[in-house]
Amino acid sequence: MSLASYAANPALSLGRLHSEPAEPTQSGRNAFQRDRDRIIHSTAFRRLEYKTQVFLNHEGDHFRNRLTHSLEVAQIGRSVARRLNLNEDLVEAISLAHDLGHTPFGHAGQDALNECMKEYGGFEHNLQSLWVVDFLEERYARWDGLNLSFETREGILKHCSRKNAEKLGPLGERFLKGHQPSLEAQLANFADEIAYNNHDIDDGIRSGLLNIQQLSEVALWQEQHDRVKHEFPDLTGRRLVSEVIRHIIHVLVDDLVKETQRRLEEFAPSTIDDVRHGSPMVGFSVSMREQASAMKKFLFKNLYRHPQVQSVTSEAANMVKVLFAHYQQTPHDLPEGFRSEDDLQRRISHYIAGMTDRFANKEFHKLTA
């Protein structure tokens, strides 16, 4: 497949933090493919299997976790990139790495750690993912981190406060100047949204916290439900839910492709620099954005804030706070590489953010026994 002129080209990458020889031509891997492979082989990537998406890992074998979520994001992202003639390898690398810095216990853990770090610069999970790939992974003899390409690192850093952006040099400039990342980075962001909205509905129904009757108030669900029932009148249960979700993903992806193509025709970028200095070019149509937003609001109200979910996540958030306080008071309980008094609180946040759900739970009970 030939890439569009405005797609990210690995041969024209802005480079890595530490220079290194290009891959031998006979190996067949370009810079973004190397990034993807480094991410997959990283310790942080393996830990995602035991990090919460919505439901804690021990609550069921069939619920999504951060690893399966990242794989679903990558699949959706690659499919869209192919239709838009964008770089599939870069989209995949960004998608697989975007949650590497996420805390244990999902958003509850993230919010708790941010609260603990309030007086020490806060906690941003996108920035944490960047720290993972730039510094915290220990795999190579010559440098810390994974030494990924600028374009992959740019896509990982989806959000960033101005204060932190000022410390990041070229990588932070777009947040200060109002510029855009590559189209591949923009696409990975939307693939993330499509994936979590739909698999959270699936997991919510599987858990019994959501039901089809409730979902009838969500236009995006009901339209596709009616379409599926018209084609398969006798379909019920898991097959019905799966078929409806499959249809929803299809209409979201189709709208994303068509609206992005429309914007590309309107703005007519010729190069990736045109993309970076232009307006956002990947996105839903106005009507689809409204429907996707309505679905997200439904999930916040009926799933993420469900008493049963909040009860469990409240307990998990408390574990994070207790762990943080303990390590502040007793730094020698930290692993050797995290004990330095220099920026101790940030080192504690690095350590806790890297924990899986089960390891954090184990440490909490060990320290509070």
TrEMBL record:
<protein>
    <recommendedName>
        <fullName>Deoxyguanosinetriphosphate triphosphohydrolase-like protein</fullName>
    </recommendedName>
</protein>
<dbReference type="InterPro" id="IPR006674">
    <property type="entry name" value="HD_domain"/>
</dbReference>
<dbReference type="GO" id="GO:0006203">
    <property type="term" value="P:dGTP catabolic process"/>
</dbReference>
<dbReference type="InterPro" id="IPR003607">
    <property type="entry name" value="HD/PDEase_dom"/>
</dbReference>
<dbReference type="Pfam" id="PF01966">
    <property type="entry name" value="HD"/>
</dbReference>
<dbReference type="InterPro" id="IPR026875">
    <property type="entry name" value="PHydrolase_assoc_dom"/>
</dbReference>
<keyword id="KW-0378">Hydrolase</keyword>
<dbReference type="GO" id="GO:0008832">
    <property type="term" value="F:dGTPase activity"/>
</dbReference>
<dbReference type="Pfam" id="PF13286">
    <property type="entry name" value="HD_assoc"/>
</dbReference>
<dbReference type="InterPro" id="IPR050135">
    <property type="entry name" value="dGTPase-like"/>
</dbReference>
<dbReference type="InterPro" id="IPR006261">
    <property type="entry name" value="dGTPase"/>
</dbReference>
<comment type="similarity">
    <text>Belongs to the dGTPase family. Type 2 subfamily.</text>
</comment>
<dbReference type="InterPro" id="IPR023023">
    <property type="entry name" value="dNTPase_2"/>
</dbReference>
<feature type="domain" description="HD">
    <location>
        <begin position="66"/>
        <end position="197"/>
    </location>
</feature>
